[in-house]
Prior knowledge:
Layout: H1 6-9, E1 10-13, H2 17-22, E2 27-32, H3 38-48, E3 54-62, E4 66-69, E5 72-75, E6 79-86
Antiparallel strand pairs: 1-2, 2-6, 3-6, 4-5
Amino acid sequence: MANIQYYDVILKPLVTEKSMNAMGEKKYTFLVHPEANKTQIKEAVEKMFEGTKVKSVNTMNLDGKKKRRGATTGKTAKTKKAIVALTEESKDIEIFEGL
């Protein structure tokens, strides 16, 4: 496995209707590096966002979708998604505040 630094783990936040509803329960959804494990994701969230304390991390691997362009077929890149639950006394993550 490659040596992944904490700032390379979280690629971008995932903003969907379902993930926005989960924010009321202090659950945040991110697209993460495909080789990152749960402990690396927990460490990255706690270091990148001050005052947060992670309770649990759930991950899921998503296969790429089949796409066609004329007669040529291919697949998009596979991704990994992480749902991070924070503890009750933890601060909220600021990047989701204005949404």
